[in-house]
Structure formats: structure tokens, C-alpha cells
């Protein structure tokens, strides 16, 4: 069994295969939210300009959609490596130096995302318990706030998988990235 097959059959490889469709779905939901917001914005302009009848609660709907659009695709982007990062130094590194920096950066990201999950969950619970609503249309805020710890949890799992892969390559830089 080669290294790629061992990775695929390892617990982390199984977790990777399990989380990919969830990341894909979350990214689809984020893309759909962006599309629907564009449709809603167009409808708002037409209704307000042509019929002098704007959509009630339009600004509240835009605010509530921000969490999904901003965070649901983060784990997917992390998996593809299409996230924004500093490549000036890391792009010039090879071997153990590269994977050492990757391990360090991923550990820092895991700590930050872990804190954001913790506090995001607290904000969701407080909003849910208080029955928090938007100011204008009084839409409930908790569903939007729940998306934050869910999306960050997906991202945390993806970072954990990335950390294991980086540690593996730090130990043996001659292996192929998975």
C-alpha cells in the first residue's frame, strides 16, 4: 500500500472524504445567497423606482444574508487553496521549512477559528434566548448568527485535516501532498 492509499484509508482521510460534500453544499448555499441577493437588489430597484413601492425590510434581509455569504464558503476555499495568504516568504520555501511554516500558520488559524467558534456560539445563544430581531422589519437574528459557528466549525475541521497533512509532509518532505 503506497502513501496515498494509506492516507485515503486513515481516519483523517475518511474525515476528509466525509467533509468534502458538506463543504461543497455550504459553498453552494453561499453562492445561492449571493445570487438571490442580486435578484432581490434588482427587484428592490425596480419596485422602488418604477412602482414607488420598495421591499419592506430589504436592508434587514441584506444584513442577515451577510454571515452566510461571507463564511459558508471559507472551508471550501481553504480546501482548494484559493484563500488569501502571504506568499512572499512561504512561496520561496521548500522542504521542511515550507511545511514547518505551514504547520505554524495552520496552528495559529486553528486557535483563531476556535475562539471565533466559541464566541460565535455565545452570540447565537444570547440572540436565540432573547428573541433578538432586526430593527426595521423585526426578522429574527438567530438563524444568521447560527451560521457563523457552523461555518467556522467546518473551517476548523478543514484546518485540522490540513494540519495533519502538513505535519506528515514536515516529517517526510519527499511524500506527495494529498
Set down the secondary structure blueprint.
Elements: H1 3-9, H2 11-50, H3 58-71, H4 74-80, H5 95-130, H6 142-171
Helix pairs in contact: 1-2, 2-3, 2-4, 2-6, 3-6, 4-6, 5-6
Account of the protein in words:
- This protein has helices at 3-9, 11-50, 58-71, 74-80, 95-130, 142-171.
- 75% of the residues lie in helices and 0% in strands.
- The longest helix has 40 residues, at 11-50.
- The chain has 178 residues and is mainly alpha-helical.
- It is built from six helices and no strands.
- α4 (74-80) packs parallel to α6 (142-171) and α5 packs antiparallel against α6.
- 22% of the residues are buried.
Quick structural summary:
This protein is mainly α and 178 residues long. The chain is built from six helices and no strands. Helix 1 (3-9) crosses helix 2 (11-50) and helix 2 (11-50) runs antiparallel to helix 3 (58-71).
Overall, the morphology is: elongated
Elements, N to C (H/E): HHHHHH
Alpha-carbon distance between the two ends:
15 Å
Q: Pairing-aware structural class of the strands and helices?
A: mainly alpha
The largest β sheet comes out as: none
The helix fraction, in percent, is over 70%
Number of helices: 6
Number of DSSP-assigned strands:
0
Strand portion: under 5%
Low-confidence stretches: none
The pLDDT mean sits at 90
* Radius of gyration over all CA atoms, rounded: 21 Å
Task: Name a few traits of the molecule.
6 helices, mainly alpha, 178 residues
Amino acid at each position: 500500500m503506497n502513501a496515498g492509499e494509506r492516507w485515503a484509508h486513515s481516519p483523517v482521510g475518511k474525515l476528509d472524504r466525509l467533509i468534502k460534500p458538506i463543504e461543497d453544499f455550504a459553498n453552494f448555499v453561499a453562492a445561492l445567497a449571493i445570487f438571490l441577493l442580486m435578484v432581490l437588489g434588482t427587484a428592490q430597484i425596480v419596485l422602488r423606482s418604477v412602482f414607488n413601492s420598495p421591499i419592506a425590510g430589504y436592508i434587514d434581509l441584506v444584513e442577515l444574508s451577510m454571515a452566510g455569504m461571507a463564511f459558508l464558503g471559507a472551508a471550501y476555499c481553504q480546501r482548494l487553496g484559493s484563500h488569501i495568504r502571504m506568499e512572499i516568504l512561504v512561496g520561496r520555501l521548500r522542504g521542511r521549512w515550507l511545511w514547518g511554516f505551514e504547520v505554524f500558520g495552520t496552528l495559529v488559524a486553528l486557535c483563531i477559528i476556535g475562539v471565533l467558534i466559541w464566541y460565535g456560539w455565545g452570540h447565537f445563544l444570547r440572540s436565540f434566548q432573547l428573541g433578538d430581531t432586526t430593527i426595521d422589519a423585526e426578522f429574527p437574528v438567530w438563524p444568521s448568527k447560527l451560521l457563523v459557528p457552523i461555518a467556522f466549525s467546518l473551517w476548523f475541521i478543514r484546518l485540522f485535516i490540513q494540519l495533519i497533512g502538513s505535519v506528515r509532509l514536515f516529517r517526510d518532505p519527499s511524500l506527495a501532498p494529498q
